[in-house]
Amino acid sequence: MRAAKRTAQATQESLHRIFTIAEAPDSTLGRIEQEMSQNLAGFLGNHIVATKNALSDIEQDFINAQIPEQPEFVSDHMQHLLDKLVAQSVHTSSASFIGHMTSALPSFILPLSKLMIGLNQNLVKVETSKAFTPLERQVLGMMHNLVYQQQDEFYQAWMHSAQHSLGAFCSGGTVANITALWVARNKLLRPDGDFKGVARSGLYAALQHYGYKGLAILVSERGHYSLKKSADILGIGQDSVIAIATDENNKIDCQQLKAKCEQLAKENIKVLAIVGVAGTTETGNIDPLDKMAAIAEQYQCHFHVDAAWGGATLLSNKYRSLLKGIEGADSVTIDAHKQMYVPMGAGLVIFKDPESVAAIEHHAEYILRKGSKDLGSHTLEGSRPGMAMLVYSSLHIISRPGYEMLINQGIEKAQYFADLINQHEDFELITKPELCLLTYRYAPKAVQELLARSDEKTQAELNLTLGKLTKFIQKRQREDGRSFVSRTRIEVARYGGEKIIVFRVVLANPLTSQAILQDILHEQTQLAQESENFLPQLLEAAKA
Ligand SMILES: *Cc1c(COP(=O)(O)O)cnc(C)c1O
């Protein structure tokens, strides 16, 4: 029996204890661990409470900027975490939370993550990672193989070579995209005669040496905002990321891409990279990668494919061809923490040419010595955890055919949901799913008919009100906490390219059933009736 009131003390003994002795099985932490390992979904379902707390209220629980002078017992602290943090978290793995690209995790991930954290290897150098370094190199090899399908001899020659790397493992798609464009920049503005290269002499000297007025990155208007961050930190400038128009299927218009390449060549602005998107974040569509590869070849520029979200589709023999032409890319970004069901913090960039990373090679005396197999000599990040182990294990435990089933069921579920929306007279499908992502909105039949017979000006007014209604429904649904869809604003060709607010769903969670999808439409229909202004206003207009 513990005393009712006790306070923790910061003593040598208590510090020694937290480094050596596990919490008892019947302690708060012990019970949490048991509950989580027996049934993670149940644990999350029990402890995340769906209350309508405003973020400003939650901030009150995290308001004190003092570092504690008084230590807490682990159990007391765990109770605090359950009450203030876990309870007010988002149930990302819930089968009815279909708004984001992060979904459920397989149950084996939890104990494996614990092992990974416990080992606490640092992948920056072999000295602190040993077997983790060859493991990560093998994962990069497998992912390279997924994209480029080279012969076995290729992988035997390059996978473990000290001077080469088939890619870089990093924290996510953003760092992967930055790394790809960093390589592209340094290869383009490489050392030449007396010029020491952009990496040493900087962008100003590089442009002068090569006689370019500027650099540009070309990507469709659906490109991810991480490309602008990349251009910013690489010194190229955000405005040098040039958005190319998309067609009615949200794919880059290759005519316009070519025209832009021509125009820039005349202005003496060098295209640093053409970026294809394989699964846009907002609509899930895939650019015509084969055509883009040919254009990049013609204009002699780096071709990068941002397949952060959609890259995992390559694991499906049935749908792999949706990304045809990806093998023409010089570099490819894939996030394992999206459709590969690995926890956050696992992104990759793969390079076609094993020599590419030489362009960003860095060495230091005490680590990353020349000729060492240290992964840190080719990565943007320094100290890095052994996340590659979770990708490695998932690839072994789930295997390619298992992933194929997950990918296929997501795509087919999105097709089912699109049918459901099309059949429901009060919903309007905005973008058809190509992968497992689609957008739609609530628009009563009468309003849809009115839209169809209205001129552009009236359409714009109606779309504005429909947008407010969509926002109202989405917020209420999120606050109610039973289910979640996200929302975004996209240009829609059928409304003259006007930006409209839509619901967005990503159907990656294998536990999302058809019944859940039906319920979501039902819930949205109900919530729409609670909007005091927007729905009556729209119905009134439709009657007139
Ligand atoms: C998610 C995503 C990114 C960014 O990846 P993070 O892992 O969030 O850094 C980049 N591009 C696309 C297409 C994405 O979907």
TrEMBL record:
Keyword Lyase listed: yes
Classification via InterPro entries: Asp_decarboxylase_pyridox (IPR022517), PyrdxlP-dep_de-COase (IPR002129), PyrdxlP-dep_Trfase (IPR015424), PyrdxlP-dep_Trfase_major (IPR015421), PyrdxlP-dep_Trfase_small (IPR015422)
Keywords: Decarboxylase, Lyase, Pyridoxal phosphate
A Pfam family the protein falls into: Pyridoxal_deC
An example Gene Ontology CC term for this record: cytoplasm
GO molecular function, one term: pyridoxal phosphate binding
Domain of life according to the entry: Bacteria
N6-(pyridoxal phosphate)lysine modifications at: K338
GO biological process: carboxylic acid metabolic process
The keyword Lyase is assigned to this record: yes
Family listed: Belongs to the group II decarboxylase family.
UniProt protein name: Putative pyridoxal-dependent aspartate 1-decarboxylase
The organism of origin for this protein: Litorilituus sediminis
